[in-house]
Structures are given as C-alpha cells and as structure tokens.
Amino acid sequence: MEDMSFSDPAFPDPTLGNQVTDVQRDRAVEYLSNAYASGAIDADTFEDRMATALTSSTRAELNSSLRGIARVATPAGQFAAPVVRPQVVNNVENIGAGFTHLSGFIFPFFLGPVIVKAVARPGSRLWLEAGRALSFQLTAITTALVLGTVVAVLNIGGPLLFLGVIGWLITTTLLAVRAFQGLNSTAAIEKLLPFKPPREDRQIGRR
C-alpha cells in the first residue's frame, strides 16, 4: 500500500486539525534532538524546527517541524519510524569519536582521522566524526600555511602564529568534548569550514 505520510493531498488526514498533546510534542522534540546530535540536520535547521515544534498547536503544525525527518501516518497521531534514522550511538562509539578528534594532536595532524575514517563502517557515528575531525584538521593546516606566509612576508613575528596554535588547541579539545558527549562536533562551525565534513543525510541514499 502506498505510504500517505504527511497528508497525501488525495487523501487528506482529518486529524491534522486536532490539538497536539504533550506526549506528541515531546516525541517530536526527541526526534529533532536525535537528528541534530547525529548530524542529520544542522544547527540552524534544528533551531527553526524546534521552535516550530514547541509552538505548534495542531498536528499539521507539528508535522511541519518533522518533514523529511519522521513519518507521521496514523490517525491517532502516533509517530511512526523516522525516515532519516538517527544513528543509535553508544558509549563505545562516543569514546572512539572523542579520541579520533584528540588524535589530531599527533603529527601529521590529519593522519589519525584518515585512518579511523578508512576502517570505520561508512555512515556510522565513528565514520562521521572521523570525517568531521579530518575536515577541521585540514582547515587548520591550510590556515596555518596562510598565517605562516603572512608572517614571513610581513615579518611581523610569531604572535599571530602563537594565537593560531592556541585557537587550534582549544577548538580541537572542544570538538573532542562534543564527540565524547555524542553530539555533532562541528555543528557550530561547519559553515566556516572550507573542507565540508560528511553529513548523515548525504549517506542515506548510498547505503
């Protein structure tokens, strides 16, 4: 039978005007939180969708916050399985993801993430975080080369490079902490990275 999730125009769902219950809203918030933590949606999308979910009063409004993330197909308004399934992460994967970022402290700084990404299962949390760690380290190396050139050409000494190293140390540590916590480590800085990290929703069609 053809799926008629999110109210097929030919078969409008008469319950879309029903008031949203606290249980339904809480479940929508949980889906959005899981999708953000796994990298299925970025920070801006997460904030917009979360605001829609929290302020929704009808099922139609709540459904719009989950469009493309979860299927809502039952007349009773119960949420079915998500279309983009957030990764089921465990402590082992989180620990591995965190140490993958910390491996960036070892020269050559990108080698650890490259090795982990090569051996991890494509689409897994460890694979995604290795890609994010690699993306940041490549960005940091490129930035260091640019700063080094500026220092050499302008002969302004080492303070600029020193500040760059401090920024790299702090950012690498913060990314590792977020990875240990099961979060998308680069969500807050992804737009600033010229080497874009992999996203879970880009991998769904490749599995």
TrEMBL record:
Keywords: Membrane, Transmembrane, Transmembrane helix. The keyword Nucleotide-binding does not apply. The keyword Membrane applies. It is found in: Membrane. It holds the Pfam family MamF_MmsF. The chain crosses the membrane at residues 99-120, 132-154, 160-180. Residues 20-67 form the DUF1707 domain. It is a multi-pass membrane protein. This is DUF1707 and DUF4870 domain-containing protein. It comes from Tessaracoccus antarcticus.
